[in-house]
Fold this sequence. Notes:
Blueprint: H1 2-11, H2 15-35, H3 38-42, E1 44-50, E2 55-60, H4 63-82, E3 89-94, H5 97-100, H6 115-127, H7 132-147
Parallel strand pairs: 2-3
Antiparallel strand pairs: 1-2
Helix pairs in contact: 6-7
Amino acid sequence: MADSLRDYLAATEAAGPLLAHAALLRKLAAVYRRVVPGHLADSSRVANYRAQSRTLVVLAETGAVAAKLRQMAPSVATELTRNGYDCTTVHVRVQARSAVFGVVGSPPCGRPLSPSACDRLRALSESLPPSPLRAALESLLQRAIRQE
């Protein structure tokens, strides 16, 4: 079904070029992730490629990441060219993570607290006077109980 839908969309006049451009962006993003150091690649993404101006557009999460990527732009363009993509310029823009990267708030913790950790945190919480720290520990323990 997916292949027949892909074939159908590729055959239509409007969707064909769009699918081709999306495939090109996926390939460029793969090369980009190999060329750029991991921490910078994790904090940025390929947004577009303008074939007419031979420009790769990259969105960075923060100004600091954008500044470093701008310094690396000539070498990134050179590496893309070595990998068969006609790229002479890398244009870096800053765009907030929540708007572009799909993150709203902090990601949930993947591992629940162990029973011994819960016991120790409960003992610590009970030993504290009423305070924001005690309230935070109690909230953490309540979430840990709901996750189990």
